[in-house]
Design brief:
The protein has 375 residues and is α+β, with helices and mostly antiparallel strands. It has two domains: 6-192, Ribosomal Protein S5, domain 2 (2-Layer Sandwich), CATH 3.30.230.10; 196-366, GHMP kinase, C-terminal domain (Alpha-Beta Plaits, 2-Layer Sandwich), CATH 3.30.70. Helices cover 38% and strands 23% of the residues. Strands 1, 2, 3, 4, 5, 6, 7 and 12 form an eight-stranded mixed sheet that branches. A four-stranded antiparallel sheet has the order 9-10-8-11. Bound molecules: alpha-D-galactopyranose. Residues 29, 33-34, 36-37, 164-165, 167-168, 326-327 line the site of alpha-D-galactopyranose.
Amino acid sequence: MTDPSPAQQLLASPPPDSDVLVRAPGRANLIGEYTDVNEGWVLPVALELATVVAGRAGGGLLRLRSLDLPDEGTVEIDLATGRGPSSGWGRYATAVVEVLRDQGRALRGIDGVLASDVPLGAGLSSSAALEVAVALAVLDEPVDPLALAQLCQRAENEGVGVQSGLMDQLASTGSQAGAALLLDCRELTTEHVPLPPGLGVLVVDSAVSRDLSSSAYNERRQQCEQAAADLGVGSLRDATLDALEDRWSSMDEVVRRRARHVLTENARVLDMARALRSGDAAPLGALLAASHESLARDFEVSTPELDQLVEAALATPGVVGSRMTGAGFGGCTVSLVEVDRAQEVREEVLRRYAQASGRAPRGWVSTAADGASVV
Ligand code: GLA
């Protein structure tokens, strides 16, 4: 047994004077990468790893101290003016307050602490978990999971400058324990698709850290928009593989591969949801493998380390399937594993990858967890 993390401790025993306690999870995307920004489908799960805020409500300030990053001091945001830090983790909180103010939401001051066991910069949506936790703490009115996710996505887009989609924030606000969240990013409809009881989620960090804003994320988005324009549709959601084949030779060599990834990935998400719904684990491994391959070759967001990590997982008994998860350029893989031997599988994957890469990976076994809540 490992010791409880600061976030788990904070959740179990918040400071005695706190009257607000919120928890917002990170996520692992099972399948459907870069499809949210093309009005397609995604299938993430919320993780047991989460960000926790505990504090006392009242006054006109959001004052938070991070138990994980004590050197960064106390973040203070004036709810009346929206003024707050523009760097460090505090900039996410400032961005959230900014958007909530802009929408005229009722806000309350908070004086408290924050802790997170979502690893930073590992592609498990630590920033979405932080945004959602801060929003739930300062909001003085109920907001439904979709609206809350959209507010936090806007904070990420405007405040942090990454043109990311809705997946991370909605996985954090809208998930249900035991199920993956099938999200249709055009219709904004969701379905909770239960995971087979025998399967657990293993997330392993390749120990190559990533920074979304400095990465080629926005460039990938533009290439997808270019592809949609070339195919004469408003978004790749409306394109077909037949149409892509017809236009193939007239399209830019990179742009057409980006499109092929998105179109085939959308089909894989729907296939995976269908397999999970019918309790059929047989196609899962091949779908995860095809997704990884497509992200590596057509979308070019994998890294040699992520490839090695997937290989290490696939060589380990008890692993049903594995692929990179999230935006790529480093970060984590997600694997579906036999739940009875999940810890043993975790250790073996870590051992194999450490040996192959010379890096020091970390890994977490998780169930599909509940979305964010005020505890
Ligand atoms: C990041 C973004 C998401 C999504 C993924 C890639 O996590 O925040 O919106 O686009 O990358 O699937």
